[in-house]
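Side project, low priority. Logging it here so it doesn't get lost.
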Amino acid sequence: MRVFEVGADRFQEREGLPAQLPSSGFVWVGCSRAEFEAHLAELQAALQHWTGSTLFDLHVSDLLNVQLPSHFDYTSGYDLMVFRRLLAGVSGAGGEAAVTGARAQRALDAIDTSPVGFAVFDRVLLTVHPGDCAVREFFAQRLATLSPGEMRSTGRMPNSPADLMLRMVNHMVDGYLDLRRQLTRQLGALQQELLEPKGRFHDWQLLLASRNTLHLLEDTCEDQRGAVQEWIDALDEWPAAAEDVAARDRELLRLRSRDVLEHIERVLGHVRRLEQSAEAAVQMHFSALGYRTNDIMRTLTVLTAIFMPLNLITGVFGMNFEFLPLIHTATGFWISIGMMLVVAIGLATFFWRRRYLERR
């Protein structure tokens, strides 16, 4: 568990939970899910002392639930946001011209989501992360490296717990945006293998798993969009700020919230385009397979049509009669062979001119 004091011109890590809130700024408490469960009593006592309210038992269960989808809830003392981050364990090399289907499958299987919980009080932000989450470490390192001049002049320091929460959520959504190229390359490799003219596609379970992964991402983005939209609606219902500075900060929160929502919409649209592309590739595969089957059947039909009159000629001369034309002559065999060649060449020429026989 890490505790930080965040102000307009300072970012300081504390050894433990402070006895009192600072005179300005707010306190950020970031802990893993296991640490949150182990120090729950201590955290609840500190929140009661700092803010006069504690986390409800239902919200504590939500923060500890690793299967909970993204959602938003609020009380009179705090707002609760659960946002599922994206984890990609395998990333492809950018310089590769193509990715094999098996490698694409390993990369798609590595995509996983884990919830990150935010309890937003007026001057306290409690974040509950997975054990391997790098979001907390990223912001702790990023804010700690800012100089006092940068903190005051550029406005890079979050001015409220809600502001820091939105920045962290936006960072997680940007992880989805960064994954678009990887997903596109992996699905493109599967589609290329699926539409290979001379190949045979057998990895239908691989393709089904990839489509299920896209469905999972779509459901995750839908939940995220709903959670952020509920947060924006709740933000609009906050009481009007009396001071100009507070009103400006409130408007900045709205801008950041709409920016996060727009990023989620972009990710959702990209996932849906990938789903449509995969579905179109499957339809094209079956269309090409049907066309190839028809082409083969047409060739076999033409060959059958050519040999049918030849079989008729051989059948006539194979009849068991004593008197047949050309039977008792020395040139009868060669005449019949010539007739058969003429018929075969004539039919082949006819079918070729009708474009029933051609190389594609």
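Brief comment: The domain at 2-289 is CATH 3.30.460.20 (Beta Polymerase; domain 2).
Revisit when time allows.
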